[in-house]
Write a structure and sequence with these properties.
single chain, alpha/beta, TIM Barrel, Oligo-1,6-glucosidase, domain 2, Immunoglobulin-like, 3 domains, five-stranded antiparallel β-sheet, 14 helices, 19 strands, globular, disordered N terminus, binds 1-deoxynojirimycin
């Protein structure tokens, strides 16, 4: 199976594991995860049963935003390793049948990127400044009132008086995508990594590349012009025999979202509607229906995502009084019943993995890690914390290094001190502890991913009537997924054999917040 071309449609039904490299495994004892650590743990991922890994940005970066501030798009952050090690990783992963997807960040660079440094030095009116958005201010203030997504103004003034645009942190200047040099640069960057064997790219902030600075209102989301860019990218990826393009596209309007998945643009995009859905039967059913209605007519496979490095861990979120997710209202420290949350997260995993399309697993999700909500303020790294004037703690709570083994921190993650502290309570959640316990979250994920490979993936779904409080559907293989979201137990179907359940099944009953996979009697 290794290689890129053996099964060209592999991505349509793939299980893709997201590696947040900084926190996965540390190979050299400096407390930060790295390529050596990841390479040593590839057998774990093969055993888990994933088809691909997606790595968050691994480029040289001052880490003002966890690596989403890229200083050099053609190299590897020294703390993570070297380009030669990255090439080895890609090769070793292929040998285990695992493909590699990397993160490309086209909306903005780091302020330490050579182009931005050149622009600062070259001064107003220069060609170098044309690659970014430099403008004179209005009076003493910025060119317009746009706000940064991380809080505060989206403009920063440089010593010669001009201002530059940054939709995120000031250390992340936005590229000017009207400039042909910028377009050319990213086509070259894609080729650079495809030449090194990467199987696909995840495109950061994919919908905000094109801006209309003359608009009084903030005008950067989903301009039609962005599609031209992805058509060019698709030509490059196709020329490599079908490397894939995955968009980070947060758009509430599903018709506009679907435009990104036209046959000559991106292959897939993350399903944030499903990720954001409350743990309620009507909401989840509506989200699944909407997703399928968006994807099926255009022949694009859906994706199913429960978590990533930007949102609260499902175990914590599903244990809260409000179970939906909203980026604008992060619900920091809203009380959570973690036992309830864990039960629901297990059921949610079986639901997501049974749906048609591809599925993402964010590292630690398979261990049932909770959001860490007590990181000491002086250790908080996320720029949201500073930018919000210390009102939003941000995303570090889902980025805490993984617990691998042993009874106390650093839990086999490192021989040094982890860059964020791990809770002592994670001793029961280590890979080692869970491997020894058949009822663990890890064993559930392993079994589900194995069955999924054989029986699920891309295809169609048929809804089954099972009352208002349950979700039930059949896949073409005959596998039925049944999830009880109500307070009362529901009866299991009378025929068929149980393949896997997210919790105990008592006397033919499916308990509240539990999911089961059943193979229909034929
Ligand atoms: C989305 C990424 O997932 C997030 O972590 C990052 O902060 C922003 N894009 C800006 O690059």
């Amino acid at each position: 199976m290794p290689g890129n071309t053996s099964t060209p449609d592999w991505w349509r039904g793939a299980a893709i594991y997201q590696v947040y490299l900084r926190s996965f495994a540390d190979g050299n004892g400096d407390g930060t995860g790295d390529l050596a650590g990841l390479r040593s743990r590839l057998p774990y991922l093969a055993e888990l049963g994933v088809d691909a890994i997606w790595l968050n940005p691994w480029y040289p970066s001052p880490m003002a935003d966890g690596g989403y501030d890229v200083a050099d798009y053609r190299s590897i952050e020294p703390v993570f390793g070297t380009l030669a090690e990255a090439e080895k990783l890609i090769e070793e992963a292929h040998e285990l049948g695992i493909r590699t997807i990397i993160d490309v960040v086209p909306n903005h660079a780091s302020d330490q990127n050579a182009w931005f440094q050149e622009a600062l030095a070259a001064g107003p009116g220069s060609e170098a400044r044309e690659r970014f958005w430099f403008r004179p201010g209005v009076g003493d203030g910025p060119p317009n009132g746009w706000q940064s997504i991380f809080g505060g103004p989206a403009w920063t003034q440089v010593p010669d008086g001009e201002w530059y645009l940054h939709l995120f942190a000031p250390e992340q200047p936005d590229f000017n995508w009207n400039n042909p040099a910028v377009r050319q640069e990213f086509l070259d960057v894609l080729r650079f990594w495809f030449d090194r064997g990467v199987d696909g790219v995840r495109i950061d902030s994919a919908a905000v590349l094109v801006k209309d600075l003359d608009s009084v209102e903030e005008s950067y989301t989903d301009h039609d012009g962005v599609h031209e860019i992805y058509r060019e990218w698709r030509r490059v990826s196709d020329s490599y025999g079908g490397r894939i393009l995955i968009g980070e596209v947060w758009l509430p309007d599903q018709e506009r979202f679907a435009n990104y998945l036209r046959p000559d643009e991106l292959h897939t995009a993350f399903n944030f509607d499903f990720l954001s859905s409350a743990w309620e039967p009507a909401a989840l059913r509506a989200s699944i229906d909407l997703t399928l209605a968006t994807h099926v007519p255009i022949g694009a496979p859906a994706t199913w995502v429960l978590s990533n490095h930007d949102v609260a861990r499902p175990v914590t979120r599903y244990g809260r009084a409000v179970t939906s997710w909203d980026n604008a209202e992060r619900r920091d420290r809203m009380p959570s019943d973690l036992e309830l949350g864990r039960r629901r997260a297990r059921a949610a995993a079986l639901l997501a993995m049974a749906l048609p399309g591809s599925v993402y697993v964010y590292q630690g999700e398979e261990l049932g890690l909770n959001e860490v909500e007590d990181i000491p303020e002086e250790l908080i790294d996320d720029p949201m914390w500073e930018r919000s004037g210390h009102t939003v703690r941000g995303r570090d709570g889902c980025r805490v290094p993984l617990p691998w083994s042993g009874a106390e921190p650093p839990f086999g993650y490192s021989t040094g001190e982890p860059w964020l502290p791990q809770p002592a309570g994670w001793r029961d959640l280590t890979v080692e502890a869970q491997e020894a316990d058949e009822s663990s979250m890890l064993c559930l994920y392993r079994s589900a991913l194995r069955l999924r490979r054989e029986l699920l993936g891309d295809g169609a779904l048929t809804w089954l009537p099972y009352g208002d409080e349950a979700i039930a559907f059949r896949r073409d293989s005959g596998l039925v997924c049944l999830v009880n979201l109500g307070a009362e137990p529901v009866a299991l179907p009378e025929t068929g054999s149980v393949l896997l359940a997210s919790g105990p099944l008592d006397g033919g009953l499916l308990q509240s917040d539990t999911a089961v996979w059943i193979m229909e009697a034929r």
